[in-house]
Task: structure prediction
Amino acid sequence: MRAAVPYRPSALYRVRPPRAAPPPNGAHRTAAAARLNGRVPARPFNGAGRTGRTGERPMHEMSIALAVVEQVEQAARAGGATGVAGVRLRIGELAGVVPDALSFCFELACAGTLLEGAELEAEQVPARARCGPCADEWAVGMPPQLCCPRCGTAAAGLLSGRELHIAAVHWADGDVPPHGRTPGDGPGGTGGGTAPVPPREEC
Amino acid sequence: MCRVTDLQQAVLAKNDACAHALRANLAQRGTAVVNLLSSPGSGKTALLERELVLARERGVPVVALTADLATENDAVRLARSGVPVKQVLTDGLCHLEAGMLGSHLTGWLPGDTRLLFVENVGNLVCPASYDLGESLRVVLASVTEGEDKPLKYPTAFGTAHLVVVTKTDIAAAVGFDEDAFRAHVEQVNPGVEVLLTSARTGEGAGLLLERALAAGDGGPVHAPVMAGPPQHHGHDHGGHDHHDHHGPVAGAASRRGAEGTGE
Ligand SMILES: Nc1nc2c(ncn2[C@@H]2O[C@H](COP(=O)(O)OP(=O)(O)OP(=O)(O)O)[C@@H](O)[C@H]2O)c(=O)[nH]1
Ligand SMILES: [Mg+2]
Ligand SMILES: [Zn+2]
Ligand SMILES: [Zn+2]
Result:
């Protein structure tokens, strides 16, 4: 048995990981994240778009909004874009995100970034499940029913409903899309090509 | 002219990547993470206090990290067990993220740790969206919270590997309907095990520890329907037997013995 380790309350264990030295790979937080980091207000958001569920806690959707802004900024930086007109998200019914609340947070998260004023278009994706034995497919509804309505077996899997994806970014007028990311879509092309996911920041 | 780029990128991709890295890193050291989620006050700390004492008595090297918006009270309570404990104050953030967890472990996590219990912030909404690199996700609900809790928080209960009912000592007093609760759990997460516990009387004591050790050793872990595709994890292709799913950290124990605490 190991020796008992007494708990030492204090500064050693203080809030947020120490970020004194930047990670070796140069990972960094965006301006928006840095600005809001640790200051996500607990109260002002309550009641705005989500009622009864959050009590006094800060809103989850702000974290999601910041993640969206960070990723779009990264894509923009990679391609030299200077403005964003809109962002389209796909939000599954079971993603655990309230679209209205997210829209509200998105506007705040965009302020002061190159997404300032960007429109958020949230496409809701219904959750559907499939049964193995009888190959039945059904809309699981809310609250979800994940046992087959026909034979009662547990669903073999979800066909959709957990999405939380950035589907597309509309760059502001006059901007070229990020170069090298839209195959066959050089300057003057048609736009809307599929872009490979930019390299991920490490943790 | 308005230009469009199809990004097709998961919003939580960064957290997921961090969680995968953390899971792999910890597996190499023989450490498995147990992520405990519940509403505020469901009894996470009380249950954990008991399990940590049991682990220590049995000589199982475990540690606990507890996240709260404020106060170090939970860490003080947990530390009475004698196992290493760390308090993380999230400073307003309502959930833990994998990157945060990882950086808190650096330089702290003892090299021989088999289980790292993480008491997440009391909240059933967003912690459910953040993979912490855990091998076992445990969602708790006390008998006082209503039998329909799993239906109100389907993403949390739906992604649990194990559901724990707490405070059964007062079940009769509050008229807890166990059958109704189980039926609701089954509706959102068919096949998941439900444990009954009371930190007050000791009912179910040791079960959580047992399940966690089994998962850490690469034993079969329940595969929630909701955790399958189309989530952006890419390790799960559906269609498999629900009771024969090996968690992403399967085999953590096989690499046990790796020395050192460096990341
Ligand atoms: N009767 C009874 N009360 C319990 C039991 N477990 C916890 N409690 C009480 O429930 C309250 C909350 O317990 P905690 O263990 O602090 O709950 P928690 O989930 O850690 O709370 P947060 O960390 O604030 O989210 C305390 O007053 C405990 O004494 C139990 O098994 N039976
Ligand atoms: Mg607690
Ligand atoms: Zn069926
Ligand atoms: Zn949160």
In short: The mean pLDDT of chain B is 88. Residues B 44-45, 74, 119 surround magnesium ion (ligand 2) (CB under 6 Å). The domain at 13-218 of chain B is CATH 3.40.50.300 (Rossmann fold).
